[in-house]
Design brief:
263 residues, Enoyl-CoA_Hydratase/Isomerase, ClpP/crotonase-like_dom_sf, globular, single chain, Enoyl-CoA_hydra/iso, catalytic activity
Length: 263
């Protein structure tokens, strides 16, 4: 008897709200092609459903998402690594832009770390609620990867080039409170209140005129800015591919994984 296919991203729709939940908690919701494929398919369904007025992007487990699965990269044969990376980063870029393009407002619910390319899922959201323990961190200089997920294509536009440079070169963690100050998080909320706060935001949005909400969101991402983000993400993809097959990156992945196993 064939085992049921595991759903890496769940879509639940209730009361005009679509809840998308990353469901790979045993790997900290790290990104693999299968997960991004499912997320893209769900986003396409949500986009075409006029009965959906808002979207909540959440995750199971202790982490929101730790970005690209380093184990997934490391375990690729040398001959397949470039193709695997091209596919994964390309899917991530498509997902970020698909989130931005949704006519419905998107609320990100951060219950833990957001590292690597998964920051792009948050940068694409309109409102972000985070628990105090949540944080952002790049880890690119620790592994050898070039930044993806908007760390160079979108983040400097949000927080300034110098601050983005400092965070990435020093591989510095940005806690939830600092992220709120920088404008990456809308509000820091205790874990036992985060769903209440999101429900309050949803109620506020539901009390507005739907076409007005969608028009405001559309004007806040004009065509020229969206095009600049898309071009920047493609530049990130090309830079990532130029670095990922270097021997020192293979060594960096092994060291990173060894530290994780030891920790």
């Amino acid at each position: 008897m064939t085992a049921p296919v595991r759903e890496l991203v769940r879509l639940e729709v209730e009361g005009g709200v679509a809840r998308l939940t990353l469901a790979r908690p045993e790997r900290h919701n790290s990104l693999v092609p299968e997960l991004l494929d499912r997320l893209l398919a769900h986003l396409d369904a949500v986009r075409g459903d006029e009965g959906i007025r808002a979207v909540v992007l959440a995750a199971e487990g202790r982490s929101f998402s730790t970005g690209g699965d380093v184990r997934g990269f490391h375990d690729q044969p040398a001959t397949d690594l470039h193709g695997y990376a091209a596919g994964l980063v390309g899917l991530l870029n498509r997902t970020i832009l698909a989130l931005m393009d949704l006519p419905q407002p998107v609320i990100a619910r951060l219950q833990g770390p957001v590292t690597g390319g998964s920051i792009g899922l948050v940068l694409a959201a309109d409102l972000v609620a985070a628990v105090p323990e949540a944080f952002f961190a790049p880890y690119y200089v620790s592994v050898g990867f070039a930044p993806d997920g908007g760390w160079s294509a979108i983040l400097p536009d949000r927080i300034g080039v110098q601050r983005a440079r400092e965070i990435q070169l020093l591989n510095r963690h940005v806690g939830a409170a600092e992220a709120q100050t920088l404008g990456l998080v809308t509000e820091v909320v205790p874990a036992d209140r985060i769903d209440v706060r999101i429900a309050e935001w949803l109620a506020t949005l539901d009390g507005h005129v739907a076409c007005g909400v969608r028009a405001a969101k559309r004007r806040l991402l004009p065509d020229w800015r969206r095009a600049a983000y898309a071009a920047g993400l493609e530049c990130e993809r090309r830079a990532f591919l130029a670095e990922v097959t270097r021997p020192e990156v293979r060594e960096g992945m092994a060291r990173f994984l060894d530290r994780r196993m030891a920790g």
